[in-house]
């Protein structure tokens, strides 16, 4: 490093904290880390400061040349020199201590990066790092690690999740687990919430307005196995739609007092149609097929306000910096909250005279920009983020679920996301019957499971998708095998449950009881009876019934009478199958199967074998 650097750029408080946390993390660990900063928060400055502080060589990667250029420019603001390795920028330099490169160019020239002196790899927009080990980023990582096994790897992103994968990191510094332990990135060491950025005046306020005109209806479209909508499906809805000219007319009207307008189209054909309705001479279109020279010219004209309207198709969602943009029009469905946040983020940077950014959504996107992120796809359109406290460690988990009258009546969580240590870890293991894996700094993931599969060999609770017990490694009995075995027995009854009835009844001695009756489609039934008069009876009911039937397992609900259970029946779910065995003249419920995904059908499917006898 030069000894007489000029005055360094001033970092905002959250940027300084991000740098500090990264340095502290890598002093203690070689685990790949993530910093989450909203679009427009100045990731480039954080990268520049870390590159300045690094003792060895630094490689900063991005997937588009605009980001390579931005990150390089921020580093140069320190009065320091760095190389650029990007074919798109016409430079392939890799000799200086710090190199800013595009991943596409670097992966094709790995021999230029064989120097074992690289100690830090920084990846901008790191949510693009694929789990596939053959992907470009992973090839670069493995190449650098062969030269230096202790390479520090830092990713920065505004959207730390991938379609089909969920969160890209395992542990969060606030003391919770988000993604899978097998993921590439292990620790999120710093995160700055978008709402706080807006509140502190670091970003312009997003002003979402309900459009007053007819919208597109993309609700019937289904994403492909890759999680993306097919272009032909998008065209079927958007192209030639009678709503398009009216929508564009409203955008123009609302843009009268606005300076820069970005329109996000569903497809190339749709974008070309939109462009035809915009003012000639003030508008331009950029797609993936736009020649590089034309793209550079059009973006330059837009940034210089020689163009007011810029239509694009999935090419300006990242790496595009035009602070004067103050109207975002979304005319396409967004497959994820991450993409939605990236699109809206194009308009949240500050600029002189800019007060807010108007967000016009004509595609009915369901995402809430400020909503806590769950990281997994919505299980249903009416699901929302709900907070569920772990009964073992008290961690406030965030799952998809439903709320009624202020009560969480359903959630889809499987295991507590809390990170705990010491005696709490032991308590969690007892209540969850699972040994937790070690985390950073001696912490463990709480072992309490909201949904579980019990090992018949040792009694341990396992994930509902597990095939072998985590405790004794015994093979877990497949639900299909249970059904098949029961169907062979003459003294067993298997019900494919089509209904569950709750009744306040009395037993033979006249004492109040809760009667639970399971029905199948042919009228066969099996019954269970529960007493709730004493605390031990209520505890037994909670263990034998509630923990399995609650749509929001782990909820604190201790009904004291059958009538309370019946009143709260919306909080309960029926099993998919019930297996009963005959004891004397009566049938007893021996097993209930929930969350069934096997080959025998549930009550609303086909191909279920008939049971005889």
TrEMBL record:
InterPro entries the UniProt entry points to: Helicase/UvrB_N, Helicase_ATP-bd, Helicase_C-like, Helicase_Restrict-Modif_Enz, P-loop_NTPase, Ribosomal_zn-bd
Record-linked Gene3D superfamilies: P-loop containing nucleotide triphosphate hydrolases
Xref: Pfam families: Helicase_C (PF00271), ResIII (PF04851)
Domain Helicase C-terminal: 247-392
Record carries keyword Nucleotide-binding: yes
SUPFAM superfamilies listed in its UniProt record: P-loop containing nucleoside triphosphate hydrolases, Zn-binding ribosomal proteins
GO BP of this protein: translation
SMART domains documented for this protein: DEXDc, HELICc
CC terms in the record's Gene Ontology section: cytosol
GO molecular function: ATP binding; DNA binding; helicase activity; hydrolase activity
Domain Helicase ATP-binding: 24-178
Keyword flag Nucleotide-binding: yes
Keywords: ATP-binding, Helicase, Hydrolase, Nucleotide-binding
PANTHER family hit by this protein: ATP-DEPENDENT HELICASE IRC3-RELATED (PTHR47396:SF1), TYPE I RESTRICTION ENZYME ECOKI R PROTEIN (PTHR47396)
Record protein name field: ATP-dependent helicase IRC3
Organism from which the protein derives: Modicisalibacter muralis
